[in-house]
Structures are given as C-alpha cells and as structure tokens.
TrEMBL record:
Lineage: Bacteria, Pseudomonadati, Pseudomonadota, Alphaproteobacteria, Rhodobacterales
GO biological process: amino acid transport
InterPro entries per the UniProt record, alphabetical: BCAA_transport, Leu-bd, Peripla_BP_I
The family this protein is said to belong to: Belongs to the leucine-binding protein family.
Record bears the keyword Signal: yes
Superkingdom classification of source: Bacteria
Species per Swiss-Prot/TrEMBL record: Paroceanicella profunda
Record domain Leucine-binding protein: where: 58-400
Name assigned to this protein: ABC transporter permease
Keyword list, A-Z: Amino-acid transport, Signal, Transport
Length: 429
C-alpha cells in the first residue's frame, strides 16, 4: 500500500527539472546551466523547501512487563497493540501522514522501575501517549507520572478497580476491563438462587480488588458469599487454603456450593484443587476466562460456568474476523485473551489521533477520548467520561470439551452487554 507523502517533507532534489518544478518557473532550467540569476533563484528556492519544518513522528511508548511471571500476557498485549495500529491505519502505520513510532520498555513487573521508565518515555523520548502495564501493582505506581508530565496513559491490561478508582487521574484511560466488570459479569453468571460461594484470590491489588468488586456485585443477586481466602502470588501448595474453603462450604445446606477462583499468571490453583476432589463436599469450581494455555486445565471441568473478557470464537464482527484470520496466518494460533485488549488500545489511539487531527496536546486528547466510541475485536467500546473506563461486553460461558481441541472451550451462553452491568464509578477526583 502506497504511503502518503508526509506533510512538510519534499522529495530529494534531483539534477533535472522534474524534481524541482515546484520551485517556480526560474527553477525549470537545469541546475548546471543557465545564467547566474537563474542559478541563484534555484538555490534560494531549494533552500526554502529544505527550511520547511518536517512533520514529527508520533511516539507511543509501550511500558509493560516483557519479562517475569506475566510475560505471556505481555507478549499478547504487544502483538495486539501492533496489530491494532496496523488495522487502524490500513497497514501504513501513519495517521494523517505522520508516522507512528512504538518504543518498548520492560518494567520486569517492578513498580519502581515502571514508574521511572514511564517518566523516561515522557521526558527523554517525548512519547505523546503511553500504553501498559500488565501488572496492577505497577500500574498504580505509574499513574502519578502521567499526571506529573500531563501525558496520556492508556492502561492495558492491568485490572484493579483502584486504577480508575481512588488512584485515578484525568490523564488515565483504560481499554482493558476492570475488576468490577469481571466481578459483575461473573456475579450475573453465578448468582443463582440457593447458592453459596467462597473465593480464592492472590493477595495483592488484582486479587483483593477483584474479590471486593465480586462481593459487592454478588450482594445484588440471590447468592451469598460465605468465605474469602487470599494466598501469596507465588503459592504452589494450596492444601491448607483449600481445606479452609471446604470446611466453610461442606455443611452449608445450600443446593449450589461454588469456589470462585480469581487468579493471574503462573501457578493457577484450579487443577490442583480439582485434584483434591471438591465434589465430595458438593463443591463446584468456577472462574472467569483466561489465556489459551490456562484453558487447558478447564478441560477437566466440563460444564463449568463463568464470565470471560474474550475468547476468539465468540465475538462476531469484521475487526475480530480480521484479527483471527491474520493471527492464524502469521502465528499459526488463534489470538488470545490479551491480544484482543492490546488491539483495542491500538485502535483507540488511531481513532483519537484521527479525530484530533494529530494534535497530541493532552487537553485535546482528553476531550477527544472522553465519551469516544470505537470498534474493537469485542465490538463497540466507549470511554465513560466520569472515569475513562472502557465500557464493553463480557461473555457468560459454559465449558465444552472437544477431544480435538487441547483446551476447554468457553462456549457462549449469553453476551452480557454494558447496559446489563451496573459498573460503579469509584474515582473520588
């Protein structure tokens, strides 16, 4: 695809009249000929062309945990971001003639490093927009940097409610789902009559925010939350936690007893707890969606229900069709959970720049992004003006097992649209 000429740039001056015809009639004579006046006129015209200011590239910084326990999420997020920029610009990686340049910075999942790298991106690299990070803990450290430099940070895919809640500032926009969207959609899927639920989550911002939001959402359903269990992120032995959960549930007279697991990254406890045979206490495991590698453990739990952010075969729209086709062609696998999120962020950036006519001033971008609607692999999203959280559909699923597929398939039960979810506005600023 031919790329448009970048505004303010000119082709190299060649020693013939075709390259310099824009300089005017006096320049239509060859450079090495004509009288002195003509040569002076030509030189002046050429100098004026080179003096025209070249259009600056628009720098986007992807500040994310390329290495560490969440590197699988990070790789998907970056692939999605680049494919979103590609799709949004019809393959040119340019908006209105200006080139998009993406720089990468690895937080290594360290909050202090993420904070300093974002400052470096804004201050030294002059990034107009930053995207990331993967970890909620790192994201919380990065938020004040965006406010200090008065630059846009699009949070993708960190989930904690506090990012667009009490720690939010007006320079923060989030394309990823938040803990409340996870929680409310799972409460819709699991909150049946005569049901009691226990939770198991990681003991940090993602896990605690997730349970807090789930507790609040579940209170609006007939189901009851009766026990909460938190364990360190690096836990590998879940025996003690599982026994406390089973004790809390086994003698409850409710018809349905569920253990809802909220987990990110390695050491997912679902398979290990399932191996303890919770069914002997009448306990069923439930959880939200996850990446394809984690869905392999779901194959042991046919019929398990929950709500997910994305599974490649669920949304039906042209953007997702392109993503699935191209990802299969390039990588030999379907796009994953966080690939869709990265693409949503890339598409949001392109749409905002187009609407703002490439004005990267933060105030212009804020006014453009607030309330903006755009198409993503999940369908339409909209940045809620009050807290800049992207409103989006979630998907109630039931696990189907197909011997030909190496993971449990989240088969769509129902699309849970934004209008079906009461997502609290938690920011206080």
């Amino acid at each position: 695809m031919a790329k448009p000429l970048i505004a303010g740039r000119v082709p190299a001056i060649l020693p013939d009249k075709t390259a310099i015809s824009a300089a005017g009639p006096a320049a239509e004579r060859p450079v090495l000929g004509g009288n002195l006046v003509s040569r002076i006129a030509l030189a002046a015209a050429a100098a004026s062309l080179f003096a025209m200011p070249a259009a600056a590239d628009i720098t986007i910084a992807h500040v994310y945990g390329k290495t560490g326990p969440l590197e699988a999420y990070a790789a998907q997020s970056h692939t999605g971001l680049m494919m979103g920029l590609e799709y949004g610009t019809d393959g040119t990686m340019e908006v209105n003639g200006e080139k998009l340049v993406v720089i990468e910075k690895d937080t290594q999942l360290k909050a202090d490093l993420g904070k300093s790298l974002l400052a470096e991106a804004y201050g030294d690299d002059d990034a107009a927009i930053a995207v990331g990070p993967v970890s909620s803990g790192v994201a919380l450290a990065m938020l004040p940097v965006a406010e200090e430099y008065e630059r846009i940070l699009i949070v993708e895919p960190a989930v904690a409610d506090s990012i667009t809640g009490e720690n939010w500032n007006r320079y923060i926009f989030r394309t990823g789902r938040n803990s409340s969207q996870d929680a409310v959609s799972n409460a819709v899927a699991l909150g049946q009559e005569d049901t009691v639920i226990a939770t198991l989550a990681q003991d940090y911002a993602f896990g605690r925010d997730g349970v807090s939001a789930f507790r609040e959402a579940l209170a609006k359903t007939p189901a009851k939350l009766v026990h909460e269990e938190y364990v360190p992120q690096d836990t590998t032995d879940f025996t003690a936690a599982a026994e406390r959960i089973f004790t809390a549930l086994k003698d409850n007279p409710a018809t349905h007893k569920k253990l809802f697991i909220i987990w990110a990254g390695a050491n997912n406890p679902m398979g290990k707890i399932n191996a303890m045979d919770p069914s002997r206490f009448g306990v069923e495991i439930a959880t939200g969606g996850n990446i394809l590698a984690a869905l392999k453990a779901y194959k042991e739990l046919p019929g398990m229900e929950g709500a997910t952010y994305y599974y490649y075969d669920i949304p039906k729209n042209p953007v997702n069709d392109w993503l699935v086709t191209e990802h299969m062609k390039r990588f030999g696998t379907p796009p994953d959970f966080f690939t869709a999120g990265g693409m949503a962020a890339g598409l949001a950036i392109v749409e905002a720049l187009k609407e703002a006519n490439n004005d990267t001033d933060a105030e212009t971008l804020i006014s453009t992004l607030e309330g903006m609607e755009w198409q993503t692999p999940k369908g339409w999203m909209r940045f809620r003006p009050e807290d800049h959280q992207a409103m989006q559909s979630m998907y109630h699923f039931r696990i189907k097992v197909d011997p030909a597929v190496e993971w449990g398939i989240p088969e769509l039960v129902n699309e849970i649209e934004p209008i079906d979810m009461d997502i609290p506005i938690r920011n206080t600023r």
